[in-house]
Amino acid sequence: MAASDLTTDGFALPPVLCFALDGRGAAEPATLEAISPPNHDAKPEARGKGRPPFIWVHLQREDPRTRAWLEAESGLDSFLQSALLADDTRPRCTVHGEGAIIILRGVNLMEGAEPEDMVSVRLWVDRSRVIGVWVRPLSAVEDLVSAIERGIAPVSPGELVGKLAQRLADRMEPHVSELHEELDAFEDALLEDDTVQRGALADLRRRAIRLRRYIGPQRDALTTLSIEDLSWLSDRDRSRVREAADKTTRILEELEAVRERAALIQDQIVEARGARMDRYMVLLSALAAIFLPLTLFTGLLGINVEGIPFAEEEWAFAAVTGLIIVAAVILTYVFRKMKLL
């Protein structure tokens, strides 16, 4: 993958990203070589009034250093490595020992990409580190990196996950609002009797369904994390994760509303089309009813037999034509009174 493929909003996410966070809101860059497997028998000590320090490692899956470090240096078992390196992932939270595998998704904001082609971030979180693996860059991760570089770092692994989940939800909201705006345009077009392209409406519904496919499980994953009995999750961390879950729930509800509105617009399009067809059929039926007796009358006068009245009179053609016109006017008046024309 080219370096240009690893950018969003002008920010380049390096394939190997390491931070040592001190638990008090500050962080320093680190290297993979300086990170050793944690000693789970010893609890990290907090410094001053802060939380215990921890490490954040964020790795690009296709980088050759990623798999080598995970297998040789991370201390993770094969199950966790497989979860972090899987090809296809759905949002979930799975507790494993003293840590948790957390897989989340965010909208794709890369230039030229479809936002609903959601991008995954896979995390292993325990009390002393957060190990993330990504395939395509996420703007929410870049937001966290920017905050750390400004000196506003998460103070715990739980806060890092909560902030990431909130940023993912924040990045989704504008895209869901765009779906509502497109539906508003469709409804305005219907009110003004303009033609609504059914293909465009079907595409909007498809986009909403693709978003909902991942956002529903993501809400469940965050809810699960907030209630799990993990020692490194403080009450404040749980509150932040619940807030992210609530935001995700609101987005899910908005997507449900988009789907329902799209279905109603589709029904209105079908009803409007059916009403137009009914009007055309009534009009054609009325015209047929007007011309049927006139056609019968002229057909009788046009048969090639003896005895047709006034056949030899010069004024006969004008009289018959006038009679036909009068009959047509009378029938048209009758049908208008019946509101069939």
TrEMBL record:
CC per GO annotation: plasma membrane
GO molecular function ontology, one term from the record: magnesium ion binding
Topology of this chain in the membrane: Multi-pass membrane protein
InterPro entries cross-referenced by the UniProt entry: CorA_cytoplasmic_dom, CorA_TM1_TM2, MgTranspt_CorA/ZnTranspt_ZntB
Keywords linked to the UniProt accession: Cell inner membrane, Cell membrane, Ion transport, Membrane, Transmembrane, Transmembrane helix, Transport, Zinc
Localization: Cell membrane
PANTHER family, per database record: CORA FAMILY METAL ION TRANSPORTER (EUROFUNG) (PTHR46494), ZINC TRANSPORT PROTEIN ZNTB (PTHR46494:SF3)
Family: Belongs to the CorA metal ion transporter (MIT) (TC 1.A.35) family.
Protein name, UniProt field: Mg2 transporter protein CorA family protein
Organism this protein belongs to: Glycocaulis alkaliphilus
